Amino acid sequence: MNFGWDLTDDYGHTTALHEIGHTLGLPHEHQNPFAGIVWDEQKVYDYFGGDPNNWSRDQTCQNVLRKIDAGEVEGSNWNPDSIMEYWFPAGLIVQPAKYHDGLNPAGGLSETDKQWVKRFYPALPAPFPTLEPFQTRTLSLKSGEQADFKLEPSASRTYQIGTFGTADAILVLFEEVNGEQRYVAGDDDSGQDRNTNISAKLFQGRHYVIRVRLTWAGGSGQTAIMYW
Ligand SMILES: [Zn+2]
C-alpha cells in the first residue's frame, strides 16, 4: 500500500483505514447490493471525471456505480457510516431521498464495520499456558486429545521434558520461529512400559511449545507433565 500524501489528520486516518479495509477484502459500501441507491448517473460521471479524481467512465463505474452481485459478498445491509462508504456531494444520490443533499459518513470505523470484520477475522485462540521448570501440570486428557504449553527457559542448558503416569503419549517439542512451530524433538511411548522423555538444549530468550497427545488414556485417566 502506497500513500502519496499526509495521513496524520482525521481524513488521512480514515483514508488509511478504508484502504486497509480493501486489503482485508471489503468492497465499497455504496456498491452494497442491499443498499438500493439510485444514482443520477450522469452527475456521478461528471463529478468523478473532474478534479481531483479525473476518473474515466469505467473507473467511476467500477468504484461507484456498479452494484456488487449479491452472491459475491457477505455483510450487513447498507451502513452509510461504514469506513468503506464514500463521501458524496449533493445531487448524486436520487434515492434514498434523505441523501439528496449529500452523504457524509461519520469517519473512522462504525460499530457495524467492527462487528463484521471480527466475524470474518475471529480472534485467535487463547495463547498456550506457560509451563515453569519443576512445576507439574496434571492433565485430564482422553485418548486422542492433546495439550500445549509454552516453555520460556530462563537459562540456556539441557533440559528434560517428560510425562508421568500409565497413559501412552506422544510428546513433541517445537521452537517458535517467526510465528511458526519448528520441530525440535519428539518421543512416543505407545505400547511400551515407560514414559516419554525428551532431552534437549533449550536457549534462554527463545520460545518453545511442548505438545502432549495421548494415544491411550490409561487406567487413571490422568497424566502429568513436567520439565526440569
Ligand atoms: Zn476504496
How would you characterize the overall build of this protein?
- This protein has 2 domains: 10-120, no CATH class; 137-227, Jelly Rolls (Sandwich), CATH 2.60.120.380.
- A hairpin with a 2-residue loop joins strand 6 (168-177) and strand 7 (180-188).
- The protein has helices spanning 10-23, 41-49, 57-65, 111-120; strands spanning 38-39, 93-95, 137-139, 146-151, 157-164, 168-177, 180-188, 197-202, 207-216, 223-227.
- 18% of the residues lie in helices and 27% in strands.
- It is α+β, with helices and mostly antiparallel strands and 228 residues long.
- The radius of gyration is 28 Å and the shape is elongated.
- It contains 4 helices and 10 strands; from the N terminus they run H-E-H-H-E-H-E-E-E-E-E-E-E-E.
- The mean pLDDT is 93.
- Helix 2 (41-49) crosses helix 3 (57-65).
- The protein has a 4-stranded antiparallel beta sheet with strand order 3-10-5-8, with no helix packed on it. The chain has a 4-stranded antiparallel beta sheet with strand order 4-9-6-7, with no helix packed on it.
- It starts with 9 loop residues before the first helix and ends with a strand.
- Bound molecules: zinc ion.
- The site of zinc ion (ZN) has 3 residues, from helix 1.
- Zinc ion binds next to helix 1.
- Amino-to-carboxy terminus distance: 48 Å
- Main sheet overview: 4 strands, antiparallel
Low-pLDDT regions:
none
Q: Evaluate the radius of gyration.
A: 28 Å
Helix tally equals 4
The strands making up the biggest β-sheet line up spatially as 3-10-5-8
Range of strand content: 25-35%
Number of beta-strand segments = 10
> What level of helicity do the residues show?
10-25%
Question: What is the typical, i.e. mean, pLDDT?
Answer: 93
Present as ligands are: zinc ion
